[in-house]
Design a protein that fits this description.
Largest sheet: 10 strands, mixed
Oligomer: single chain
CATH class: Alpha Beta
Structural class: alpha/beta
Number of strands: 10
CATH superfamily: Spore Coat Polysaccharide Biosynthesis Protein SpsA, Chain A
Radius of gyration: 24 Å
Shape: globular
């Protein structure tokens, strides 16, 4: 079966990262790529200027959509989705990048499961120039992921690790543009079209920097944000799945409580170490002062 991908690169003030993101697209198997669409949300830095340089080098491949005014995250994605023409849409956020062979690897899996409306994979995190594997997340334990699985114990975590069948995207676009949670909600409602896929390989890198909406927060805050978003957008889920929200909430709450216990133990340990340090310092100070007192014996 032959099919193509639209690479959708969304950007907003990503001048530090956009060249790296575009290069990672160009380093894929471009025989599978119908187009690279860069959807910029009225950046105030040099993001657009950098993207235009690449567009001049690859005029037949790269298309730039520049919003005349800032639309916000969801509407920028909506605009990008509408302009894609490939059979599948592979998303890349402007401050992230793909690892080599990502598209070819995903293509091979999608060939085996042509009815799957979406696919996601593991990703690494880049922070302070150091790469680490994202392991403390709710990755799927199976290749196929049902809507129930996604509700109960699975999260994709990052749009740059997701690929969607364009027909399914357009089908749920009216709902997507109303949500708060972006990928978290889209990855649930799109599974109404059938089971999705999980690829157990690290194929992209998320950049954790000071402006990161999600990962700049402590882990407990991240999980709290997930819960809050789920409930805000619960109106968009089918009634028969509403009861799963409570189960998902309990699962995430359990993670939060375990993390809280771990932090309390760490704080207690630090308090003990601090107490020992202060006590030892006081004892040495007393002994030092005593050494200056004349002996009268």
């Amino acid at each position: 079966m032959s099919f193509s991908f639209s690479f959708l690169l969304v950007s907003y003030n990503h001048e530090k990262y956009i060249a790296r993101a575009i290069e990672s697209c160009l380093n894929q198997d471009l025989t599978l790529c119908r187009e690279i669409i860069i959807c910029d949300d009225c950046s105030s830095d040099k993001t657009l200027e950098i993207a235009q340089k690449y567009q001049k080098q690859h005029p037949q491949l790269i298309k730039i959509i520049s919003n005349p005014q800032n639309l916000g995250v969801i509407r920028n994605y909506e605009n990008g989705f509408k302009n894609c023409s490939g059979d599948y849409v592979a998303i890349l956020e402007g401050d992230d990048y793909w690892l080599p062979f990502k598209i070819a690897t995903c293509h091979d899996m999608l060939q085996k499961y042509p009815d799957a409306p979406m696919l996601y994979h593991k990703y690494k995190i880049l922070k302070n120039e150091k790469l680490k594997e994202r392991k403390d997340y709710f990755y799927s334990e199976t290749t196929t992921v049902s809507l129930k699985d996604m509700f109960e114990h699975t999260e994709c975590g990052n749009f740059s690790a997701c690929i969607y069948k364009r027909k399914s995207l357009l089908k749920y676009l009216d709902t997507f543009k109303q949500v708060k949670g972006g990928d978290a909600v889209l990855n649930v409602i799109i599974l109404e079209d059938g089971d999705g896929l999980f690829l157990n390989e690290y194929l992209s890198v998320y950049t954790n920097h000071d402006n990161s909406i999600y990962y700049s927060h402590p882990f407990i805050n991240q999980m709290t944000m997930v819960v809050s978003t789920i409930y805000q957008d619960s109106v968009f889920y089918k009634k028969e799945y509403k009861h799963l929200l409570d189960e998902k909430f309990q699962n995430i709450l359990s993670v939060i409580r375990n993390e809280e216990k771990r932090l309390i133990k760490k704080i207690d340990k630090l308090r003990i170490q601090r107490t020992i340090f202060i006590s030892t310092t006081i004892i040495f100070a007393i002994l030092f002062l005593l050494s200056f007192i004349p002996r009268f014996f």
